[in-house]
Amino acid sequence: MKKVPPYAQVPVPTTGLILTGGGARAAYQVGVLAALAQLKRDAGVVEGNPFKVIAGTSAGAINAATLACNADDFDGAVDGLTHLWQNLHVEQVYAADSFGVIRTGARWMTMMSLGWALARWKRSRPRSLLDNAPLGALLRRWVRMERLDEMLAAGHMQALAISGSSYTSGQHVTFYQTQLPFEPWLRSQRVAVKTRLSIEHLMASSAIPFIFPAELLDLDGRQEWFGDGSMRQSAPISPAVHLGADRVLVIGAGRMHEPPGARREVLVEGHPSMAQIAGHALSNIFLDALAVDVERLQRINNTLGLLTPEARRATPLRPLDVLVIAPSRRLDDLAAEHQASLPPPIKALLRSVGVAGEGKAASGSALTSYLLFEPSFTGELIMLGMADTLARRADVQRFFGWPAQAPSVDPAAMRKRRAGFAETLSPA
Q1: Residue 69 · residue 144 · CB < 8 Å
Q2: Is there a contact between 348 and 333 (Cβ–Cβ < 8 Å)?
Q3: Among candidates 381, 387, 340, 389, which has minimal Cα distance to 85?
Q4: Checking DSSP bridges between strand 159-166 and strand 222-227, what pairing results, if any?
Q5: CA-CA distance, 348 to 293, in Å (whole number)?
Q6: Is the CB of residue 201 less than 8 Å from the CB of residue 217?
C-alpha cells in the first residue's frame, strides 16, 4: 500500500490565484510563479495544479489564461511563461517601427493639438496611442484557449475569470468559464457573466486606457466596447471568492506599501509632465484597488476573529486566508534603469509627453514601466519575483501546508516535466 505523506491526508482547501494588471510589470508574476513551482517541488508535491480558481486582469489575464489552459502541467506552464517573458520584445506587443508609431501615436498627438481642425475627417481619428495588433497575433500562437474546456472537464481547474471594463455601459464585468454551476453575481457597478472565454477577452482585459484600443465583446447578446479590466475594479479578490476559493494567493504588480521618503519624481522642478501625470493615473488604476481590497479583507478577518462562535455562525461572512506577494522594489525606479532599451521610435514618441533620461536622471518612468516589454526589464522583474517569493518561503509553506523538508519521493517523479512545452508555444 502506498504511504501517503501526513500533510496530504488533510483535505486541501480550494486555492484561488489573483493576477493583477500592469502591462510589462506582469513579468514579476512569472518570477513569483517560478519560485512557487520550485518550492512545490522541494516539498515533494510533484503532481497537480495548486490553483483551482484563477482570476486575471489586464496583463495578468494573459498569465492566468496560460496557467488555466495548461492546468494539467503547472510546472510546464510556468516554464512556458518564463520562456515567453524572458524573450519578449516591444514589437511583439505593439507596433514600434517608425511607420506604426506615425500611424497611431503621432496621429493621436496631432489630434490632441489640432483636433478642432481635423474633427470633420473621422478617418483621421486614431483609436489609441499604440497599435497592439502584434499582441493579438502573439496570443493566438501562445495561449491555447481551446484546451480550457478539457482542463475544466478533467478537474484540473474549477474556474477561470477574466475581468474587463465596458466603455459602453460603464460596468465592470467579470467573464468566467467553469464546469460547475456557479450563479453569476451582481454588485454595484459590477456584474459577472458566464461565457466561453476567448483571445478577444484577453485583448479587452489588457487594453490599457489611452494606450491600447478598446475591444468589442458580446455581453448578453449585445455588443459593447471593453477596455482594461483594472478600471473600476473595486474588489479584485471578489471573483475568486465567488467562484469557490477558500484561500487566495494575490500576486501584485507594484508595491503594496511605499517606504517612507519622497519619490524621486516628486522632487523634479516645474509642472509635472504628461508622462508623470499618466503614470500616476495608471498606478491608481492598477495598484490602489488591490491594496484597498486586501485591507478590507484583513479587517473582516480581524472582526470575525473577535466574534463568538455563535455570532460567527449567524453571519454569512467567513474568514479568508490570503497571502499577498508584491514587489519589494519600486518598479518605476527599475524601469528608469532600462528606458534606453525601448526602440527609438517609441522613445521619440514618449519623449514628446515627458519621458526622458535613464537611471537617476530619468523622468516619466512610471509610464514607461507599463510599456517596457524588453528582456532587460522583464528579466529583472522575473528575478525580483523569484527573490521576493523565496524570501517568504515560510509564509508560502504555511499557506499551502507544504512541509519545510521534502518527504522521500521517487527522483524520477521529481524530474517529471512535459519536455518541449516552450517549443510547442514558440512562434512559427
Answers
A1: yes
A2: no
A3: 381
A4: antiparallel
A5: 38
A6: yes
DSSP sequence for 154-183: TTS-SEEEEEEEETTT--EEEEEEESS-PP
The answer to whether the predicted template modeling score (pTM) of the entire model surpasses 0.90 is no
d(CA 403, CA 193) in angstroms, rounded, equals 39
C-beta separation of 323 from 249 below 8 A? yes
Of 95, 84, 92, 96, residue with least CA distance to 144: 84
Render pLDDT for 215-237 as a digit per residue (tens, 0 to 9): 999 998 899 999 987 787 777 88
Cα 57 versus chain centre, distance: 5
Beta-carbon contacts of residue 157 (< 8 Å; ≥ 6 apart): 49, 52, 53, 54, 68, 71, 148, 151
**Could you tell me which of 290, 376, 330 has the C-alpha nearest to residue 60?**
290
- Apex 97 CA angle, 95 and 98, nearest 5: 120
Question: What confidence tens digit (pLDDT) does each residue in 59-79 have?
Answer: 999 999 999 999 999 999 999
CA–CA separation, 149 and 154 (whole Å):
9
